[in-house]
Amino acid sequence: MMNKRKPILEKLETTLGYSFKDMKILEESIIHKSYAHENAAQKLRHNERLEFLGDAVLDLVVSDLLMEKFPESHEGELSRIRASIVNEDQLAKLAMSLELGKSIYLGKGEERTKGRIKASILANTYEAIVAAIYLDGGYRAAYTVVQEHFRPVLDQAAKSDINRDYKTKLQEETQARHKLVPQYKVTQEKGPDHDKVFQIQVSLKGKPLAFGSGKNKKEAEQDAARSALKILREEETF
């Protein structure tokens, strides 16, 4: 079957920016389980196992990239940035930009229900492809490809407010608007001492404005300030 699909696989290699030593693993990465089940006689391996591995590889590579790009950000901020760019919606958009939908082996049922543009199928296929690159060329190969694919979204994250000091920004904004300084108060502590989670309330004019949580008070305050900034910016007046 691979010879029959060789032109498509070669085009996919060009799109991905990576040349496989073992084309069979690339082919496996784009076989959806619906196709494998409908063609059971061919004894094909579908891509769910690769998807499982790719999810972990992608998290590791993106974490690595974020550590390099945001050297001053703490763990909570890095986790939020990663969650905002490594999720089904973002991966589906990336897969669509790479036109992965054209290459996926789908069963007839998925074809009828527009499986080639389903976010879940596109995102899962991208994860499987990342795993295939990792298995074929190692971590450095996966890192290089993911870095290139995620360059635009990482650049956008760097330009956004997500990696900056939210408490400072909130104070600057409330002083400019109301000549007031926000107040922070711990409202709840959960969990054992070694794994405690703090909930913080930030108030203005004595009125609660937003809440935040984190593994320490500083992180929880930053989270509360981030939520408060979002609220203030969505409202013309407080």
Q: How many beta strands in the DSSP annotation?
A: 3
Spans where pLDDT lies below 50 across 5 or more residues:
none
Structural class: mainly alpha
Estimated share of beta-strand residues:
5-15%
Oligomer classification? single chain
Cα distance spanning the termini: 64 Å
Can you walk me through this structure?
This protein is mostly helical and 238 residues long. The chain has two domains: 158 residues, Ribonuclease III domain (Ribonuclease iii, N-terminal Endonuclease Domain, Chain A, Orthogonal Bundle), CATH 1.10.1520.10; 69 residues, 2-Layer Sandwich (Double Stranded RNA Binding Domain), CATH 3.30.160.20. The chain is built from eleven helices and three strands; from the N terminus they run ααααααααααβββα. The protein has a three-stranded antiparallel sheet with strand order 1-2-3. The radius of gyration is 23 Å and the shape is elongated. The model has no long low-confidence stretch (mean pLDDT 89).
Topology:
Blueprint: H1 2-16, H2 23-29, H3 33-38, H4 48-69, H5 75-85, H6 88-97, H7 108-112, H8 119-137, H9 139-159, H10 166-178, E1 183-190, E2 197-204, E3 207-214, H11 217-234
Antiparallel strand pairs: 1-2, 2-3
Helix pairs in contact: 2-8, 4-5, 4-8, 4-9, 6-8, 8-9, 10-11
